[in-house]
Amino acid sequence: MKISPKILLLLLLIITSCAQKQIEKPVSVETVVKSSPSEEVKNMESAVLAKEKIEQHLSSIVEEALRTGDEAVNYLSSDLFLKANDASLKGDAFSASIIFKAIVRLKPEDLYLRKRFAVELIKSNQLEDAKEHLDYLIGHGDAELAIKAKLLLAGIYSAMNNTDKSIALYKEIVAKKGGELPEACAFLSKAYSRDGKFKRAFSVLDYCASKSSENKASFLYYKARIEFERDRMKSAIKLLERSIASDENFFQSVLLLGHIHEMSSKKDKAAKVYEKFLTNNPTNYSVLTKYVDILFSEGQYVEVIPYLEKLVSIDESNLNLKVRLGVLYTEVSRVEEAKSIFQEILKDVPESDKVLYYLASLYQQTSENDKAIEYFSRIPEGSALFHESHIQIAQILNAVALENTKSSDKLFEFVSKNAKKSNVLNVELNVILAGFLEASKDYTQAISVLENIRSLSEFSDGHEYYLAALYERVQDFSKADKLINSMLKKNPNNAHALNFLGYSILERGGDMKKAYDYISKAVKLRPQDGYIRDSLSWYYYKMGKYTEAYEESKKAMKLVGNDVVITKHLALIYKAMNNYDKAKEYYVEALKNCKISAEREDVIKELEDLESVRLPASVSK
């Protein structure tokens, strides 16, 4: 017997509102609470004791009401019924059964109350106790109530593995009601199929169908379930198709047929089954859910949205559905609707770090920086998203500062205030700050910022490359080389380090053979790296081998198509080949990808130089 954890809540529901003039010594809530176990019921033994004490208190209240008279009985039974019904609605069948037990003592001849008691006993798995009350209903109720009680009793016998008694009762019900109670036919056929008596199971369903044509779809469905459980899918599919043809609104057959198609990896067939059904039954939650899952899994985001919207309208409390819809709105660029739905979700879970982060990202996407920062800032320090949220705030402040240097104080202040909260933030925030300083051409200060955090273990190889690149900017080549050679000493096959050295030599106009050796080795190690391919292209360009440069540059563009430097290099190669139209095309493309003013100014200057060149006949490729 499972004891509900809500049993102690029942103490607060026990009668205190009964007229005290009718019951001279009512049991108060305080008295019950004081005499009950602690709310921390941790084991079965203490829970059973709690149940016994509650039943004792209820019993004393009931006995006093019975002694007082009918008015007290009616008042108490009505009040207790409200409590029992509330517990039942909340899914607390165990508490409901305890209260209904008291009510039945007050009103032993009320068949409705006894039936409710029996149902709560069954729901809370108190099957032996339920049998007694079902027997009473069978003996004292009318024919209809007796049949319903027998149906429940047969189910109890089945659950208790008393197959003979279960089958006997189901047979009796089927004999009397034919197909009027499809569930009786289904249970009887299921009992036979469990024993391997499949012909007899089908015979029962055929008999029921002959007695009730309006339930034909149900009986075909039950046959299909038997075949499905026997792994006879072709037969199950035919039966389900017949069931749907008999009643196109019988959703159980639609669900099982769709499920079989999905099991066979025929999602397109399953989708058609669900879609056809939803044409006439657009609010069927179960089928809607299955159809949404299929469309979602197939990446049909635009198509799935109206169906998911319907699900959300049916079940407005389902936050998972709302999150799913919000993500879909984002995927199809319906950002304002995504914001709206995540705002709704946030009302229900105002402390959710994931919702806060997603909402902040949406505002970041639409350049509503203050809102984005507000939501990122609300993510608590203990969250796994705390570091990332602060990095995003720094990125926003950096972008604003690059557009308007007067706003840079906010970036400096934010980094100063938050960098020391962890080593991760110390590195990441200062790297962003160094990036701003680099874009502002304050290379010396950018180097200083990175050197201050270089000793931290979170300072990675990628950060070392960046520092080396900054040293290159100030032409401190010895320090740049020292950093990169240190990496190569640890790993001679570090493709990025090899590429860095090779490209650096090209830019300095150094030993071209040495540069080629470094870069070609890097290409062999990482042939699908677009940046390394670009270095090889740049080597050929520097050597005047424009055809080879063009071939490698096209490969680099295919791998990394939105990089300003790679795109600009291809434009320069076209210019060297006198194909000025193509050169202009790629300069314009590079200009589109510029994120900082320094890059933009450089590309614009190249475009101006191109326009000033006298255009000879171009060498087309």
Provide a descriptive summary of the structure in words.
The chain has 621 residues and is mainly α. Among the domains are: 107 residues; 61 residues, no CATH class. It is built from 34 helices and no strands. Helix 8 packs antiparallel against helix 9, helix 10 packs parallel to helix 12 and helix 12 runs antiparallel to helix 13. The radius of gyration is 38 Å and the shape is elongated. The N terminus and C terminus are likely disordered.
Core attributes:
disordered C terminus; mainly alpha; 0% strand
Alpha carbon gap, first and last residue: 82 Å
The total of helices stands at 34
The overall strand count is: 0
Uncertain spans: 1-41, 617-621
Query: What is the arithmetic mean of pLDDT?
Result: 88
**Per the principal axes of the C-alpha atoms, what is the gross shape?**
elongated
> Could you tell me the radius of gyration in angstroms?
38 Å
What does the main sheet amount to?
A: none
- The helix/strand class is mainly alpha
